[in-house]
């Protein structure tokens, strides 16, 4: 009896130490609150917050991977949403802490408890919070909560129908925060359900089959319904009312069918299942009918357009093929280590299947795949995301083997050490956050948490922080007085990406749906921006001559940009100008009343091969656009879905004899890219906007590191547009401009 008490007391003390360690860790790495700042990531962070504040329809008026609730996870803090953001992020943070402590102290093996704690220490340390957007951020914490809940596998299966409804609600909200988070959760849970269904089918357990079928429908329909309710806050009550009516009608029909079936001689399995299937069928039909009209924002449109950005990332944003051999070697080693990690984890999950956790093991393959894809498409700081997923899966593996005696502990520890060191090596060039573990900083974080409990002080602090930030922002990003006077109160958009100018100057921002030009990397996304600009022109545009990844700025949203060239003129009095925090030039463009462009027929289509030089047919003082159509091979289509497509390079030969290589965006170039003029500096850009720049490009060719991923032939079709006689940018001369849809 005394020995039992001693062991119990030791366990309590050990669990207390574990709990205090985790509490210290979570206090050291409190969620980051993003203030409005200049920069690429900071700009879209502001954009999604402002879009939610203005109640723009996501998927239509704004298209991004984040949804109407995305500001809660990665949005910039505005005075109107600061409290919501901080409460949401802190709530997720501490819910994860509580669930993690609960899950760990239920384990029997102390060594496994220690290993899980080590995992989470490294998860936070590896989570570099690059620009506060990459790392163990709120979206990955939400997914961690889901995985920890799913690790209670027996409980989940026992009450599967109810739990599927809860997970469906959870997923519906997750989709509206960030589409990929919803995909992470939905894909994992679908694999969990399908594998359970297959096992029930193999064992011929009809009761379990019925349970999994019901759970599958419960999860799917609840997720769609919840997402539909909160997609647009302006119509949430109306949508909820519609769904309740659909639910009642479907329930009545199912009830009648149930009464009829009870009088038949059908087997019990069908008697119980058919009423549910009738309910699901009627509810689905009514759901489709309700949202088929244009009276409600389209969840389908939101998912489809957001998916275009997510899926296009694999081909438009990859960074393979660095010219720096050493860096290329390191990234290749990292990719090999990542593949090794995947192989080891798959082996561990296969073993876990044999110990009775088949559904969970198979389900974990999905986040492993997505983590690898997200981490290694760009293979920059994003590799940290793969490491986080690996360590989360290992933690779940430790949780599941707790009740099964480990036969070879040294082998397990060596395997774990290999995985941990691989993650450290993969992210070794990243900015580790050891300084956050400083006791003084943790004490300061405790004061921040305590402040949340004092509502008056908290509100005063929120007001102070947001007001001070706006003052600093105005000082750093203030437009010249002449520019500000001209655009004040007029509709305006920023091209390509520096959205911080909007709050810094209280501009009347009317965004293109794809708010940053570099993201319009498919024909469809470019078309969406073109339609927005052409159907509802902005009075002014502020243009910044820059892009990312070695692209020429004219390659971003080519159709939309060509519309700008045809329909806006340069304000040469106020252009170029600068703001204090950004030492590069901006240009003010003003809407013309009449487009200067009119269509002409397409030129002759030429099929060229990789690295074949194409002589560009140009016209005197004219602008030539070129439709460039690439096709993926069957191998390329597979690789694009499973991994990444290497960058396509355009090798440009200028008439003055110089040669320049640019990253080319192959998935939107069929819309027609301006290729006769590719300014190389601000002076040439000014001349281009003023109609003074003659055609520059003599010829070009395309290259890629792996041509097998593409069709060997590239279709190249030049075309022009003739000046209609309206004024040019400065009424200096008439010129021809290519644009298929002026």
Give the tags.
alpha+beta; transmembrane helix; 10% strand; disordered C terminus; four-stranded antiparallel sheet; membrane; single chain; 16 strands; 742 residues
Describe the structure.
With 742 residues, this protein is α+β, with helices and mostly antiparallel strands. Among the domains are: 324-431, no CATH class; 438-475; 478-723, no CATH class. Helix content is 56%, strand content 10%. It has 26 helices and 16 strands. The strands form four sheets. Strands 1, 2, 3, 4, 5 and 6 form a six-stranded mixed beta sheet that branches. The N and C termini lie far apart (88 Å). Residues 322-327 and 724-742 have low confidence and may be disordered.
The residue-averaged pLDDT reads: 86
Helix proportion range? 55-70%
Structural class: alpha+beta
Radius of gyration based on Cα positions: 29 Å
Beta-strand portion reads 5-15%
Largest sheet descriptor: 6 strands, mixed
Shape: globular
Number of beta-strand segments: 16
First-to-last CA distance? 88 Å
Number of helices: 26
Uncertain residue segments: 322-327, 724-742
Keywords: Membrane, Transmembrane, Transmembrane helix
Transmembrane segments: 12-36, 86-105, 112-128, 183-201, 213-233, 239-261, 273-292, 325-350, 357-376, 382-399, 411-429
Structure summarized in a few sentences:
Helix content is 56%, strand content 10%. It has 26 helices and 16 strands.
Structural topology:
Blueprint (H helix, E strand, L loop, with lengths): L1 H27 L11 H14 L17 H4 L7 H24 L4 H17 L11 H13 L2 H6 L1 H18 L1 H24 L3 H26 L4 H26 L6 H24 L7 H18 L8 H30 L3 H6 L1 H12 L6 H18 L8 H18 L12 H15 L1 H23 L3 H7 L3 E5 L5 H5 L2 E2 L13 H13 L4 E5 L13 H10 E3 L6 E3 L2 E10 L5 E3 L6 E4 L4 E2 L9 E5 L4 H9 L5 E7 L4 E6 L8 E2 L7 H8 L7 E8 L8 E7 L1 E3 L19
């Amino acid at each position: 009896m005394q020995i039992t008490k001693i062991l119990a007391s030791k366990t309590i003390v050990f669990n207390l130490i574990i709990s205090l360690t985790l509490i210290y860790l979570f206090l050291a790495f409190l969620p980051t609150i993003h203030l409005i700042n200049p920069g690429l990531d900071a700009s879209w962070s502001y954009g999604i917050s402002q879009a939610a504040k203005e109640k723009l329809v996501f998927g239509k008026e704004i298209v991004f991977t984040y949804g109407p609730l995305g500001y809660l996870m990665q949005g910039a803090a505005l005075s109107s949403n600061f409290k919501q953001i901080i409460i949401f992020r802190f709530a997720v943070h501490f819910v994860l802490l509580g669930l993690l402590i609960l899950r760990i102290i239920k384990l029997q093996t102390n060594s496994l408890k220690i290993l899980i704690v080590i995992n989470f220490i490294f998860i936070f340390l590896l989570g570099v919070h690059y620009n506060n957007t990459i790392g163990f951020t709120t979206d990955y914490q939400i997914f961690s909560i889901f995985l920890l809940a799913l690790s209670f596998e027996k409980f989940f299966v026992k009450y599967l129908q109810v739990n599927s409804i809860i997970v469906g609600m959870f997923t519906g909200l997750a989709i509206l925060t960030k589409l990929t988070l919803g995909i992470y959760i939905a894909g994992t849970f679908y694999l969990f359900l399908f594998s359970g269904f297959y096992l029930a089918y193999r064992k011929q357990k009809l009761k379990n089959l019925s349970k999994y079928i019901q759970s599958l429908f419960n999860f799917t329909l609840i997720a769609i319904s919840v997402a539909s309710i909160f997609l647009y806050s302006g119509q949430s009550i109306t949508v909820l009312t519609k769904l309740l009516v659909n639910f009642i009608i479907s329930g009545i029909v199912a009830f009648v069918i149930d009464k009829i079936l009870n009088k038949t001689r059908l087997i019990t399995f069908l008697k119980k299942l058919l009423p549910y299937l009738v309910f699901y069928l009627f509810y689905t039909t009514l759901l489709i009918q309700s949202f088929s009209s244009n009276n409600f924002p389209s969840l389908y449109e939101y998912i489809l357009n957001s998916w275009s950005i997510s899926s296009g990332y694999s081909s438009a944003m990859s960074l393979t093929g660095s010219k720096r051999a050493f860096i290329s070697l390191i990234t290749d080693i990292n990719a090999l280590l990542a593949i090794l990690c995947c192989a080891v984890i798959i082996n561990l999950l296969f073993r876990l299947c044999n110990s009775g956790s088949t559904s969970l093991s198979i389900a974990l393959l999905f986040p492993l795949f997505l983590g690898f894809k997200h981490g290694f498409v760009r293979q920059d700081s994003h590799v940290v995301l793969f490491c986080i997923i690996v360590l989360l899966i290992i933690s779940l593996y430790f949780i599941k083997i707790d009740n099964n005696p480990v036969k070879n502990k040294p082998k397990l520890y060596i395997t774990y050490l290999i995985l941990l060191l691989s993650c450290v090596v993969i992210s070794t060039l990243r900015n580790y956050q050891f300084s956050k573990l400083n006791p003084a900083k943790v004490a300061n974080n405790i004061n921040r948490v305590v402040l949340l409990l004092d509502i008056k002080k908290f509100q005063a602090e929120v007001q102070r922080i947001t007001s001070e930030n706006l003052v600093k922002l105005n000082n750093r990003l203030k437009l010249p007085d002449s520019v500000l006077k001209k655009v004040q109160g007029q509709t305006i958009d920023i091209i390509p990406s520096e959205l911080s100018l909007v709050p810094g100057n209280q501009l009347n921002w009317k965004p293109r749906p794809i708010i940053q030009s570099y993201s319009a990397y498919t024909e469809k996304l470019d078309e969406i921006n073109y339609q927005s600009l052409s159907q509802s022109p902005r009075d002014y545009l502020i243009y910044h001559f820059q892009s990312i990844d070695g692209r020429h700025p004219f390659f971003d949203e080519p159709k939309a940009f060509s519309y700008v060239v045809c329909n806006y003129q340069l304000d040469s009095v106020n252009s170029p100008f600068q703001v204090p925090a950004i030492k590069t030039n901006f240009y003010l463009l003003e809407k013309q009343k009449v487009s200067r462009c009119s269509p002409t027929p397409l030129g002759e289509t030429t099929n060229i091969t990789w690295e074949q030089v194409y002589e560009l047919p140009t016209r005197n003082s004219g602008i030539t656009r070129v439709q460039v159509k690439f096709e993926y091979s069957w191998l390329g289509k597979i690789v694009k879905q499973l991994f990444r497509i290497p960058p396509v390079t355009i090798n440009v030969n200028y008439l003055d004899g110089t040669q320049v290589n640019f990253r080319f965006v192959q998935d939107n170039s069929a819309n027609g890219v301006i290729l006769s003029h590719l300014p190389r500096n601000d002076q040439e850009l000014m001349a281009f906007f003023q109609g003074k720049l003659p055609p520059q490009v003599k010829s070009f060719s395309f290259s890629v590191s792996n041509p097998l991923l593409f069709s060997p032939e590239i279709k190249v079709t030049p075309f022009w547009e003739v000046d209609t006689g309206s004024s040019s940018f400065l009424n200096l001369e008439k010129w021809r401009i290519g644009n298929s849809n002026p």
